[in-house]
Amino acid sequence: MNTSTEVHNDHCLNCDTLLKGNYCYQCGQKAQSTNVPMREFVKDAAETLFNIDNRVFTTIKDLFLKPGYVTKKYIEGQRARYLPPLRLYITASILYFLVISLVDSNQFLLAKINFGGEEDAFGDFLRYSMIVLVPAFAWVVQLVHRKQKRFYVQFLIFSVHLHVIWFFFFGVISICDHTLNTISLSSAGSFLVTAVSSLAKLSFFIYLVLFVKNVFDEGWGKSLLKSFLIMMGYSLFMAAVVFLYLFFWL
Questions:
Q1: Of 115, 153, 164, 203, whose CB has the highest number of CB atoms within 10 Å?
Q2: pTM of the complete model
Q3: Per-residue pLDDT tens over the stretch 180-214
Q4: Is 146 helix (H, G, I), strand (E, B) or coil?
Q5: What's the whole-number average pLDDT of the chain?
Q6: Which of 112, 110, 150 has its CA nearest to residue 133?
Q7: Are strands 111-112 and 107-108 parallel, antiparallel or unpaired?
């Protein structure tokens, strides 16, 4: 009886395409039979899980420690080692909205808005508004960089990656505000929490400047100016969103 785990067929077992490596270039399936011992099956599953986990770690690490690096590499076509932007954005936004719901935050990006007991409705509105604001931000960035003649999708990737980082800082700010409002802290504790919140707010703009500089290869002067223009344009969109909420929902 043949117990070999080697695949002798030179065609893909899924789509019958002629194989030219360990993976089928047509459908992506690995050139491996399922008629293998349990140890081989477990080993293959562990390797798959490790690769997924490694992509998550690599993406998050490079996003925060190398601002703009992931975006630039992804735009240049080096995508295999990073999570797709949409999957990353969905995961980050779910975690962010979970945090603000747990701490009953009425934080709208960097603004704190009191709607008089309408926090639940505002939270729902905030979630829906991000569907519009993220592509709107990408459009503002494209408008500021219109001379570069890039397609919109590159600016959308830029927007998604930056908002993933911003979601983290927004969550930190919400947690800090909740801590200051609900927990009795010493003077040192209050100072520390306030300092963390202030640093998170400052990092909001710092990361924007670094992203603009590193992704679009700008000098510091142009990066600061363009980041300021981008925030001015984005603020107008955010003001319009809040106005619509006040006008139609309250």
A1: 164
A2: 0.79
A3: 888 888 999 999 999 999 999 999 999 999 999 99
A4: helix
A5: 83
A6: 110
A7: antiparallel
Beta bridge partners of 18: 11
Mean pLDDT of 127-156: 90
Please name the residues in contact with 119: beta carbons below 8 A apart, sequence gap of 6 or more: 104, 106
Q: What is the CA radius of gyration of the chain?
A: 23
Angle between the N-to-C axes of helices 220-248 and 187-215, in degrees from 0 to 180, rounded to the nearest 10: 110
The structure tokens 């001379």 sit at 147
23 DSSP β-pair partners: 30
203's tokens: 């990092």
**Alpha helices (runs of H) in the chain, residue ranges in sequence order:** 38-65, 69-75, 85-102, 119-144, 152-182, 187-215, 220-248
Q: Which residue has the tokens 């983290």?
A: 168
Which of 86, 93, 92 has the alpha carbon at shortest distance from 126?
Answer: 93
23-37, 68-82, 232-246: the lowest-pLDDT one: 23-37
Whole-angstrom distance, CA of residue 71 vs CA of residue 247: 37
The rounded distance, in Å, linking the Cα atoms of 167 and 64 is 12
Does residue 76 surpass a pLDDT of 80? Answer: yes
